[in-house]
Amino acid sequence: MTNEYNKVSVLIVGAGPAGLSAAITLKTKSPELDIVVIDKATDPGNHNLSGAVLEPAALARLMDPVDPDWKESDDAKNVLVSTIDKDDVLFLLGKKFSFNIHFAISMAKKLGLGFGQMAHGGDYICSISKLTAWLAKTAASLGVEVLRGFAAEEILWDKNEHIATGVKLIDQGLDKEGNKEENYLAGETIEAKTILLAEGCDGLLAEKFIKQAGLQRQGEQLYSIGVKELFRVSDEQYKKFTESRVVHAMGYPIWTPVLGPGMFGGGIMYPMGDNHIAVGMIVGLDFKYHDFNPQDALTRFKEHKFVKQYIDGGAVTEAGAKMIPEGGFYAIPRCPETQTVGRSNVMILGDSAGLVNMCKIKGLHNAIDSGIAAANAINGNLDAPKGLARLYTKHLEEDGVMKDMESAKNFRQTVARFGNLIGMPLSVLGGLLPKFKIEPDYEVMTKASYKLKLDTKFDKDAFTAAAATEHREEEPCHLLIGDETICTQQCLGKFDAPCITFCPAGVYEDIQGTPKPANPSNCLHCKTCQRKCPYDNIRWTVPEPNGGPRYKTM
Amino acid sequence: MNYIVLVKQVPDVSQITDNAFDPKTGNLIRTRLASVINELDAQGLAFARQMKILSGDTEGKVVALTMGPPMAAEVLRYSLSRFADTAVLLTDRALGGADTWATANPLAHAVRKIQDELFGGSDDYYIVSGMQSVDGDTAQVPAQMAEELDIPCVPYATDVEFKDGQLQFTRIITGGCQIVEPLHKPAIITVAKYEHTLYASFVQTRQANQMELIQWNADDVQATAVGVKGSKTRVIRVFPPEKTSRKCQHVESVEELAKIILESQGKDEQAEASEDGQAMGYVLPQNRQDAFDRHYEGTIKEVEDFKVLAAKLKELNIADPSGVDDAAKEKILADDAVTFHKKALEDMLEGLKQSTPEYSGEVWVMAEHAEDEVNSATFELLGKARELADSLSVHVGVVLAGYNVGPMTDGLIAGGADKVYLIDDPILKDFDPHTYRKVVSDVFEKYQPQIILYGATPQGRVLAPMVSYRVGCGLTADCTGLDIRDSSRKGQIAVLMQTRPALGGNVMATICTKDSSCQMATARPGVMKRMEPDSKRTGQVIECSVELSADELSLKIHRTEKAHGQVNFDADAIVSGGRGLQSREGFHQMVSELCGVLSDKLDISVEQGASRTAVEQGYTERVYQVGQTGTAVGPDLYIALGISGAIQHMIGVANSKTIVAINLDHHAPIFKQCDYYLIGNAEQVVPELAKAIRNAK
Question: What is the nearest CA distance from A326 to chain B, expressed in angstroms?
Answer without folding.
Answer: 33
